[in-house]
Amino acid sequence: MDTSIDADLASESGSAGGSARGSGSVDGSGSDDRPIVGVDGRAFSVRAFAIAFVSVAAGGFLGGALLGIVPLVGGTLGNALGIVAAAFLVGAVGADRRYVETGLAGAGIGTASALAGLVSVGVLPVGIQFLREYGFGVAAFGAAVGLALTLVGYYFGRDLRDGLTRNIDR
């Protein structure tokens, strides 16, 4: 039983003018044999997620560490700038559109960063109570901010790549 969804609408409609870009084809033949989800899937790629996760984590860490030297910019703002810069680079370098993978990686790093900020408070008895009461909210806020930061950075990276690789028509 085949439960996969075939998104190749150009070949089913019978139009001869379909392009490889519009039909979702990788090799230009009109069919894409990749699975929907997998190591190199069409809708979700584990490989792209791993690359985005490592890149965004490294960007957040380096942004916080390097910009932590500057008193007003360091810490949380440095992490945020590092996450945006890493997502920008992933978008500028990658050939495929991988918003889902990059967004999930950013949400995970945002959650981890927000909860890691509570660890220093969580050692105290008052901090444990605070973590118990507000930990989920802080984690959800961190995930939302991480998702937004990575998607903005990734979008502008993809936009730069599109602008640099597009043919100029006169």
TrEMBL record:
<keyword id="KW-0812">Transmembrane</keyword>
<feature type="transmembrane region" description="Helical">
    <location>
        <begin position="76"/>
        <end position="95"/>
    </location>
</feature>
<feature type="compositionally biased region" description="Gly residues">
    <location>
        <begin position="15"/>
        <end position="27"/>
    </location>
</feature>
<feature type="compositionally biased region" description="Low complexity">
    <location>
        <begin position="1"/>
        <end position="14"/>
    </location>
</feature>
<keyword id="KW-1133">Transmembrane helix</keyword>
<feature type="transmembrane region" description="Helical">
    <location>
        <begin position="134"/>
        <end position="156"/>
    </location>
</feature>
<keyword id="KW-0472">Membrane</keyword>
<feature type="transmembrane region" description="Helical">
    <location>
        <begin position="107"/>
        <end position="128"/>
    </location>
</feature>
<feature type="transmembrane region" description="Helical">
    <location>
        <begin position="48"/>
        <end position="70"/>
    </location>
</feature>
<protein>
    <recommendedName>
        <fullName>DUF5518 domain-containing protein</fullName>
    </recommendedName>
</protein>
<feature type="region of interest" description="Disordered">
    <location>
        <begin position="1"/>
        <end position="32"/>
    </location>
</feature>
